[in-house]
Every structure is written in structure tokens, then in C-alpha cells.
Amino acid sequence: MSQGYNKHNNVSLCRFLEGNKLVKTMIKDVSKYAGEEVTIGGWLANKRSSGKIAFLQLRDGSGFIQGVVVKEDVGEEVFAKAKGLTQESSLYVIGTVQKDERSPFGYELVVKDLEVIQESKDYPITPKAHGTEFLMDNRHLWLRSKRQHAVMQIRNEIIRATYEFFNENGFSKVDPPILTGSAPEGTSELFATKYFDEDAYLSQSGQLYMEAAAMALGKVFSFGPTFRAEKSKTRRHLIEFWMIEPEMAFYDFEDNLEVQEQYVSHIVQSVLKNCTLQLNTLGRDVSKLENIKAPFPRITYDDAIKFLHEKGFDDIQWGDDFGAPHETAIAESYDKPVFITHYPTGIKPFYMQPDPNRSDVVLCADLIAPEGYGEIIGGSQRIHDYDFLKQRIEEHQLDLDAYKWYLELRQYGSVPHSGFGLGLERTVAWISGVEHVRETIPFPRLLNRLYP
């Protein structure tokens, strides 16, 4: 039986609710009931009192609102309950919804009555400052804070807008497997496991399976978890993260870029429209987001190398992949995301289609977010010729048997096709203005963190 909760309390709560048969609503919907009395179930995020008035900062998962308790209006008993509330205690509150121009939310609740559901004692995350490791150890509780709530709401809006965009543009949702028998990009940064008598891996991308789906359904997208056993501690990396991976039959390289910039424009504008309060909570400079509309600028890998040399990056040579400082330097020249196109064949995966005019580069692009957030999308036109794809698999010393089914897609009605993958957490970080991706996923998996 939980602390501070018993059968008697349960009976009193039932009587409390029965005796106060008012509209039960959530904080996000209180504007519908201005001037009316409502019941809200929630938690106490914080409080302060001044003589005969108590101010309760209430949250219910949908938002935050201030509850004002005036002793003269509610009486000794209710006022004593309000003053005795502890941080994160759960309660029902009855009050009148009142407009308040001083509130970021626009409304407050003039409390008439309240009933404690469960008293929280010694809540570990107090209003004072805490270190990152402490907060990460208490991630299951840290999620309740106003800042983390805002980030999660923005994440949710990006997910909602993602489904909206692809559904409205004729895509079908397909779910690729999480357990696979091979590495889509031929890397060794995989989590291995036993699949009965076989070796299996946690998926690092659903792309190859999405190509198969595109040959069946035309335009498809997936949204699911991916795993990279990459021993990186940068602010851009997670071990487990979520990817949105569209794949499109009969789409060439240019078609692919257009879909990407339209999609990114859509999710940014959706967040601006529907998450104003959350962006304000985070102190996000929304002027930097208002300009994020298609089309996006493009720069070739060749020109990017020249640009970096002009900026003093003598360490980078043609044929090298870009690191975070290089991507940031390039992005600083633009106020929108920028495509870096036509990377060298040697540093990209085996399945990318070479430029028909230059065999040393492929028809691919990385989309680099502004403000130092790095790559958020990688995409390309895929090789659709059977013999050439087989040759590329052999050149990369990959197991032909493991890729037999993938090659068969090029045997039976092969067509030009393209696709891309967007990393959700980096995108959330950029749009919300959060510095580290660990705050953009509910329970981050980092190099040295598997708890909670």
C-alpha cells in the first residue's frame, strides 16, 4: 500500500467527487470553461504563500496552471490543506477558471476546494539547481518538470505532424523488423544477440526493408527505434534513437530532396503553430524558425571542401567525412537547413546510386540543421540495377547470401527509387533549442547509461 494512501482516503475521495459533480477537465482545455467551476486532477509542482493567500503551481500532464487559494473565501480547513501540500502530492482541485493576462497560459484557477489523493514526501528534485548526473539518475521524475514537459510536447507535435504530412501525401506506414540478420550499412557498430541458433542484430536502420515495401506500396514511411553501438559521448549522439524513414518508388534524387524540404518545413511550421507556450517556456528564439520554409539551399561536397579550406579548416581533405565542427561552419552561412550533396562514393554505403556524370560521387545528400545542430537527415537515390548492386555488395565484402532478398528486389520489376532517414531526437533538439539530445527522448540510452 503506497505511502499516504489508504482505503479511508479512497472513500473520502469518492465522496468528495460525488459531492462536487462539476465538469472534470484538463488544464489544456480550461479556456473552454472561463468563468465556470471545474474539477482538475493533478499534482503540485510548486507553491508559495503570502499571508492569507496561497499560490499553487498545478500540473496535470497536459499543462501547468496557477491555483489561487484565498483563506477568507475557502475557510480554515481548506486553506490549511493548501498550505500543507508538499511538492508532487497528487490532488483533486475544484475552482473557477479565470482569465489572467499575467499568466503565460492566460488563465488561472480560483480554488474553492481540494482533496489530497496521495501525499508526496521528500521529493528528490527540488526547485534548487541539480547536477546533470543527478537529474539523469532521476529521469523518471525529471520528466515532470516544466522544461522537460515542454520538450516532450514538442516531440509529440513533431510526431503528430509527421503522420499528418505522410498521410496527406499518399504514403503508407510500414513497420520494418527490429531484429535483423545483417547490417544495412555494412558497419560493425551493431548490438549482436542470439536468435535461437543464428546471429541477429538490433536494427540500425529499417531502410532496406522499406525499399521492399516501396516496391509493393509505392510510397512508404516507417517510424521506429534504431540502435547504434557507437562509442560517442557528444551532445548529438544516443545509443537508441527514433528514425522516420520514407522510401519512394519512381522518385529520383531531385524528387527526394523536394520531399525532404517540404517535410521539414511542415513539422517546423506545425510546432510554431501548436507549441507556442512550450517554445516560450524553453526561451526559444522563434524568429529563427519562422524562416524555415522550402526550398532549402544546396551546396555540393566539392564546394563544401573549398569553403572549409577558405575558413581555415586545413585538416579536411577531399574524401574525408565531415565532423561536427565542419558541419557547423557550413550551416552558419545559412539561415535555413542546408543540403550537402554528392559525397564521395568511398565514404557512403554500398546501395547509393553514383552520379551518372561522375562515378566518384553518389546521388546523396545530408541535411544540416542551422545553429550547430548538425545532420538531421541522410538520404539518397538507391542503386536499382541488379548487376551493379551485386558488384557493390562484393566490393564491400558483404555476405551475398544475407542480401539475397535485397538483390531480388532488382530482379523482379526494379525501378528507380529514393529515400531518406530523419533522426527524431536531433530534430527535436534543433526545433526546441535544447543543447543535448539526452533531453529530447523520455529515457535516453547513452554510452554509460542504461538506468532508469
Automatic annotation (TrEMBL):
Boundaries of each Aminoacyl-transfer RNA synthetases class-II family profile domain copy? 154-452
Species name: Peribacillus deserti
User: What does the annotation say about its assembly with partners?
Assistant: Homodimer.
- GO terms classed as biological process: asparaginyl-tRNA aminoacylation
Per its record, what are the GO molecular function terms? Answer: asparagine-tRNA ligase activity; ATP binding; catalytic activity, acting on a protein; nucleic acid binding; transferase activity
**What is the recorded name of this protein?**
Asparagine--tRNA ligase
Family listed: Belongs to the class-II aminoacyl-tRNA synthetase family.
The protein's matches in InterPro entries, at most eight in alphabetical order, are given as: Aa-tRNA-synt_II, aa-tRNA-synth_II, aa-tRNA-synth_II/BPL/LPL, Asn-tRNA-ligase, Asp/Asn-tRNA-synth_IIb, NA-bd_OB-fold, NA-bd_OB_tRNA
Entry keywords, A to Z: Aminoacyl-tRNA synthetase, ATP-binding, Cytoplasm, Ligase, Nucleotide-binding, Protein biosynthesis
Q: Which gene encodes it?
A: asnC
Name the Pfam families for this protein: tRNA-synt_2 (PF00152), tRNA_anti-codon (PF01336)
Please state the Enzyme Commission number of this protein. 6.1.1.22
In terms of superkingdom, the source organism counts as: Bacteria
Report the HAMAP family cross-referenced here.
Asn_tRNA_synth
Q: What is its main location?
A: cytoplasm
